[in-house]
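A student in our group prepared the protein record below, which I am reviewing. I have pasted the whole thing underneath without changing anything:
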Amino acid sequence: MTAETADTGLTAMFDHPFMQHAFIAGTGIALAAGLVGYFLVLRAQVFTADALSHVAFTGALAALATGVDARIGLFAATITVGFALGALGSRGHADDVVIGSVFAWILGLGVLFLTLYTTHRSSGNGTAGVTVLFGSIFGLDASHAWEAAVLAALLCLAVIVIGRPLLFASLDQAVAAARGVPVRLLGVGFLGLVGATAAEATQAVGALLLLGLLAAPAGTAQRLTTRPYPGMWISTSVAVAVTWAGLTISYLAPRIPPSFAILWSDPASVDSEPEVRCP
């Protein structure tokens, strides 16, 4: 591809409604994922996002199998499980054997619901599972794109409202509890927000890859700074940047799925717990 061809392609990119919708939804989803993901990594709860990716797949397919909009099952399942994990607290941490068994069971249910959907409700259309697994951001219409953007804005607002006490509880839970911060309630509410964000991110990158969008930008931020507020800005900025880059790459090279392009653009993955100091 020559430079002139690339310039023409980029110029014409926003002439297509599907690209406009993808950027509207993708920007909102990235902002929410970057902000929520920062606290997720800070609180060493990245495993929760991994668990919710399995739940997202099963919830969406369960809704389709019962004749309900996939987004209803997606949000209902992830938010409910998020609240449940928050309510369990430290009791929700199980050994690897239990975790693996539960994940396999949840995925097995997802496959069962996919089979029921494809054999009884979709006349043999087997693309639903692929869409849930890898996202369908280029398939969003205007109403769904703006719904995603508005919901993402509400999620960001909710995190900002609880951000200061949540940061305090994340950095020193015992002291925060002694100072009267409702640590347990904050934990439950935050994981509910994580569940909603996971459902949102599934529309962009799919259930299989949402962990990368939630965790990698935050991991990058916490490698670049130990201060929380600049870290939040970096995390959201990286998430938005890789989303824009991924959408652009996928437009210029149509054979590359947008979900892969977004995650491929991500500069880092999380491999260690961060060390963050109070501002």
